[in-house]
């Protein structure tokens, strides 16, 4: 049995933390991000914190994990191992060297591909056929440590970032428990990453959500899936005689990859869908969400909004018609 401290905040971390709490190991503490106010100044519920408190596990929420007072708290736990998953802060050398078995990280990609903050988004945005989870030993360089174990999974053709994250979170459970057992027994065979094959992905901002209509229909379909649930995939509907209407595009249907229409131009409208030209090909919008409204089918939207061929999707600087 090991004394384990868990460092995590996001959705990827929740199932693994719950599994560790139910394991034979002693969870000596949870380090998670400070509580933040959401929209309407309501506090976000942190499921990891709720679970830890229900089990009497100490919860520590430092603004800076590198601060001297943070090191004092972590040291007092006398953990054998730190398990990190979607924590959101960089660990200092002092933290990395604190537990006798070191620190391991649950990373949602097949390293060395997609080191960095948004590996799940990147896999969907790039149209990858598969992805996975890699457990690495944390070192000073970002996501560059030796690999202790990995699991692979295909990406579904309509799978969003949020849906894929949920699956990867569940796949992380047996992999993490296996690696921890191997570290405890001294049987794990670490494999160094090939740095020449490494790629890096940074954080996303709200601006990344704007749909790049000048790209191909396949790239735009990946963008719409990749930006869900955050930051969202959005655009403006531009019509003569009307102000721009901001929309989130939530689902698109089969694409025509051969046509050469004007990017963002509405080419056809049926009772259930809106067909839009891309830089190459077309997409068919099936589900969307007007700003401030609920998500709805294109059919429901069209019953309240008249959309015609020649209207445009894009930004305010784009021409209409």
pLDDT < 50 stretches? none
Q: Please identify, by name, the CATH architecture of the largest domain.
A: 3-Layer(aba) Sandwich
Binned, the helix content reads 10-25%
Q: Estimate what percentage of residues fall within beta strands.
A: 15-25%
In the sheet with the most strands, the strands line up as: 3-2-1-4-5-7-8
* CATH-level-4 superfamily name of the largest domain: Formyl transferase, N-terminal domain
| Largest beta-sheet characterization | 7 strands, mixed
Report the strand count: 16
Q: What is the H/E order?
A: EHEHEHEHEEHEEHEHEEEEEEHE
Rg: 23 Å
In DSSP terms (H or I, runs of 4 or more residues), the helix count works out at 8
Overall tally of domains: 2
What would your notes on this structure say?
The chain is of the alpha/beta class and 321 residues long. The protein folds into two domains: 3-201, 3-Layer(aba) Sandwich (Rossmann fold), CATH 3.40.50; 206-314, Roll (Methionyl-tRNA Fmet Formyltransferase, Chain A, domain 2). Helix content is 24%, strand content 25%. The chain is built from eight helices and 16 strands. The chain has helices at 14-21, 47-54, 68-76, 93-96, 119-125, 161-185, 217-226, 298-304, and strands spanning 3-8, 26-31, 59-60, 81-85, 103-107, 115-116, 130-137, 147-154, 200-201, 234-238, 245-252, 266-269, 274-277, 282-290, 296-297, 312-314. It has a seven-stranded mixed β-sheet with strand order 3-2-1-4-5-7-8. The mean pLDDT is 94.
Summary tags:
321 residues; Rossmann fold; seven-stranded mixed sheet; 16 strands; 24% helix
């Amino acid at each position: 049995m090991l004394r384990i401290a868990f460092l995590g905040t996001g959705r990827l971390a929740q199932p693994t933390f719950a599994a560790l709490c139910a394991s034979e190991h002693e969870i000596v503490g949870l380090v998670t991000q400070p509580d933040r106010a959401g929209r309407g100044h309501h506090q976000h519920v942190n499921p990891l914190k709720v679970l830890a408190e229900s089990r009497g596990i100490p919860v520590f929420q430092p603004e800076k994990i590198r601060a001297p007072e943070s090191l004092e708290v972590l040291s007092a736990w006398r953990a054998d191992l730190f398990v990190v998953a979607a924590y959101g802060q960089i660990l200092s050398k002092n933290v990395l060297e604190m537990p006798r078995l070191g620190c391991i990280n649950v990373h949602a990609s097949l390293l060395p591909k997609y080191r960095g903050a948004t590996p799940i988004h990147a896999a969907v945005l790039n149209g990858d056929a598969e992805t996975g989870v890699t457990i690495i030993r944390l070192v000073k360089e970002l996501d560059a440590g030796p690999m202790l174990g990995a699991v692979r999974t295909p990406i579904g053709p309509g799978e969003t970032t949020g849906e894929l994250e949920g699956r990867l979170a569940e796949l992380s459970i047996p992999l993490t428990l296996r690696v921890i057992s191997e570290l405890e027994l001294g049987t794990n065979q670490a494999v160094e990453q090939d740095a020449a094959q490494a790629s890096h992905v940074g954080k996303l901002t709200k601006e990344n959500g704007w749909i790049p209509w000048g790209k191909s229909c396949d790239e735009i379909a990946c963008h719409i899936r990749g930006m869900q649930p955050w930051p969202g995939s959005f655009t403006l509907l531009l019509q003569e005689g009307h102000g721009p209407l901001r929309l989130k595009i939530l689902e698109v249907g089969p694409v025509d990859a051969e046509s050469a229409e004007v990017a963002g131009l509405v080419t056809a409208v049926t009772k259930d869908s809106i067909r839009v030209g891309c830089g190459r090909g077309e997409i068919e919008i099936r589900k969307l969400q007007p700003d401030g409204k609920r998500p709805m089918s294109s059919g429901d939207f069209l019953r309240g909004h008249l959309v015609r061929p020649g209207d445009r999707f894009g930004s305010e600087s784009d021409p209409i018609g």
